[in-house]
Write a structure and sequence with these properties.
This protein is mainly α. The chain has three helices and no strands.
Length: about 80
């Protein structure tokens, strides 16, 4: 897999080295996992912000609840998975 170099502060490098030692993962694996986790965190923060905005608009929130109710009705349609 192609790689590239990034600059990190010495303290961050020291933490990465210690984590690599504790976990048996390589530093690039740890960086990749940290980036994935941060990306996931940002995604869910955005989802939360969007739902907050949706709830603040009574008309849109009513539509959301109606749509949920319509989908919930499909759960009791008697069909198997």
């Amino acid at each position: 897999m192609p790689t590239t170099m990034i600059r990190v502060e010495q303290a961050t490098h020291k933490k990465l080295r210690a984590l690599a030692s504790r976990t048996g993962e390589t530093m690039p694996q740890l960086v990749a996992a940290a980036v994935e986790e941060f990306e996931r965190k940002l995604f869910w923060e955005q989802v939360s912000q969007e739902f907050t905005s949706l709830r603040e608009d009574p008309r849109s929130w009513k539509h959301e609840l109606e749509e949920r109710a319509a989908w919930d009705a499909t759960l009791s349609d008697g069909l198997e998975d």
